[in-house]
Design brief:
Layout: H1 6-28, H2 31-42, H3 46-74, E1 83-84, E2 87-88, H4 91-107, H5 120-137, H6 140-145, H7 156-199
Length: about 200
């Protein structure tokens, strides 16, 4: 059955608790000013900050959507499925719309490094991208099977897709600079050899 396994929920709660403890410890040893200094030190490049914002938005949105869908299915809380003329509007529709908006915005260079000095357009576009990707991939099994299998065994495909894409985002945030350097070093002998052939 698709959805959060209790072990996944426990792991998510543990990760949030661990992050809260780290932030509290930093606050005790220098306050939020020190946290701000560390943030600016590690995410001074705009593209790295955009990757971080998108990654955090992606995982938070996925967790919130899963909790909401479980509460809707159980009939708890004020939330319910969105219906239009008897048609259930799945949340991947909102995800696709967000991704289209972000894509068009980036085509218009909104939130890129090319226009403006403010970081906020890039942060907002990255946030929307992370949310849109989470809403869309949470129903990956639906658009793969062309039927609503969210609560069936095939629904697990959505969780797998989210984990794979989330891993890619985390690698980009944590190891993007490293892997870029590796690729540059790997290409260097090719360029040197090509240069020798031209000179020879």
């Amino acid at each position: 059955m698709g959805g959060f396994h209790p072990a996944h929920l426990a792991l998510l709660c543990f990760a949030v608790l661990l992050l809260a403890l780290v932030l509290f410890s930093l606050f005790l040893h220098g306050g939020w000013r020190r946290v701000g200094e560390l943030y600016r030190e590690h995410f001074s490049q705009r593209h790295r900050e955009r990757q971080l914002v998108a990654t955090v938005a992606f995982f938070l949105s996925f967790a919130i959507v899963r909790l909401l869908t479980h509460s809707i299915r159980a009939g708890r809380g004020p939330f319910h499925n969105i219906q239009a003329g008897g048609l259930h509007i799945h949340h991947l529709v909102w995800g696709i719309l967000l991704l289209l908006i972000v894509g068009y915005g980036w085509l218009s260079q909104i939130g890129s490094d090319i226009r403006g000095r403010s970081h906020w357009p890039g942060r907002i576009m990255s946030l929307l991208y992370g949310v849109g990707a989470a809403l869309t991939l949470d129903e990956f099994a639906l658009w793969l099977n062309l039927q609503d299998v969210y609560w069936q065994r095939q629904g697990r495909e959505s969780v797998d897709a989210v984990l794979l894409f989330g891993t890619l985002l985390v690698i980009g945030v944590l190891g993007g600079h490293f892997f870029h350097s590796i690729a540059r070093e790997a290409m260097r002998p090719v360029h040197l050899e090509h240069g020798r052939r031209i000179r020879g």
